[in-house]
User: Fold this.
Amino acid sequence: MSSGEAGREFDPAWWSAPLEGEEDVDGLDNPLLMSGRFEAALQNPNLGDTQRDVLVALATVTSALLDPDNWQEPFTPAIQIAGRRSAVPSDLDAGQLAMVARLAPLIEQPMLRARVADVAWFYGDRSKVELIDIAIDAYRSWPLDPRGWERHGRESWARAFQLAKRRGPQGKAIIEEMCKKLQDRVLDGKSADGHMVVSLSDLLASNCRLSRDSALQIARKLASLAQEVSNADLRLSRHYEREATGWFRRAGDAAAVNDCIARVAESYASEAQLHLAPDVSNSQAAGLALEKALATIRELPTAYRREHDLDSRFKELQAQLSATRMTTLEAMIHFESDPIDLTDQVSAARRNVSGKEQFEALVRFASYGALTDPERARKNAEERLSGSLRHLFSRTTYASDGCKVAAYGGSVEDVENQIWSEVIREFDIRVHCMSLGVIIPSQEVLTLEHHFTFDYFVQLCFESPGVPATHEGLWARGLWHGLNGDYASAAALLVPQVEHLVRYHLNRHGTSTRLVDDETGVENEKSLNALLDMPEAVEILGDGVALELRALLVEKQSANLRNEIAHELLTDAAAWSHATVYAWWLCLRLMVVPLWLMQGRQAQ
Assistant:
């Protein structure tokens, strides 16, 4: 730090005045809103040079989103569009970092104090341990109440843990204090705290080593809360039970683990009955709940199922599911939209999600518009070919690396192949238009109006009947990457999971996905292409989903994402293409819509 920098004096009113006058406390603890206030203050033409420098630095420090689980890049851009992004703290130069290091001890507002000290230490001089201490203390000062926790509590405490782990011996004592406070808060939890206790428990499990007795205490508390809310909120009850399961496992109480899982299964069965009670037309949602109940029972050991007569209960639920399956299929909601130009489509897509509560906005985003109608797509392809001379000439399709992936000679025998090729070509246009005109514009509104955490997606994936059991974390991670604009990582995680999803649902409906060698009897799994060609796949997934998965994942004339990813052929351009954007969105649809239907919501 230069002598000139050290000699500059700062007035706390420079940063406190722009934050005054907020009626809602959110304005005082949301860094992005702080950044906007600092930017507005910079419009004053009478600012001195030092005051202007301070406001510019603070606007940059508070302009980013905090990702506490990413140590290498904890501060990510709030906006990323077409290769451009908003400011992030790493944009600060050495002089600005030296200045914010001096500002940190002078700031009283906890969130601003934490952010400034964190940035000054992380990107600046890490030998200044007083900065990391200021950041840790400010982050963990965040109150453990439901409203505060939902806003910024979890990310603040998670960041405090990450910083304390880098603080050496002193950090161990801090972590012990934090763990004790979280543990006490969980044990003091009330049903009115809602999902906060679940989130506290998860953070505690991720960062703290507790004794067996402490683990049992927490597990029993969570199980007690689950029973307390079981009549009023079945979904919350299941979240409590699942958290209790983890703590019982830590304590080595296998019997209690199985009891929790059994109660979760029965909770799904109860939810199915609630859907059927007012109106049998809700059998669609009831069937999805029954599927989750059956999947949960399958998690239990054979001996436990036999001891508690759960095999007979399993058969009973299967019979109920069979009785509701036909009405469930008939009740499936079909989404359609009239053709519109792209400008109107962008506006409509944004209006579709704007101003809605978080889960409804996510459902609207994922379910917007109808999927491809195979019959209509084929009819349109035939009409285009019949009105053109193209079908009389040979046609060759090349991949981006120059490889020939399809060739048609223009003969009568090639008509079916040409029709399919035309369907794929039209689908590629749809993917491009949907990405530009619907997905990306409405995603910008969705992420601007709502804060989606990774834990939120984990909870949704556990609840969704569309997500295969034991794969919820992978689905959540992939969907979360995509929502944050990292479509390449999303595709790398989700495309293999889609292949497993197809096998999973075929097997659950009694359809074998294997080929048996006639000579050796060795069984091998069918390829995804072969699976999607099976009539059972079309029946289970729907003809629109089956066509789009085939076109998007295994068709060489299109993105061919499954094979490109599996064989390490995916280029940077392909990884960040409209196809990966669409693939991520389609996966989100496969997760969210079944969950929405299970909850018995009506189509908008």
Notes: The chain has three domains: 1-167, 253-332, 342-598. Residues 415-449 form the longest helix (35 residues). Residues 164 and 175 are 6 Å apart (CA to CA).
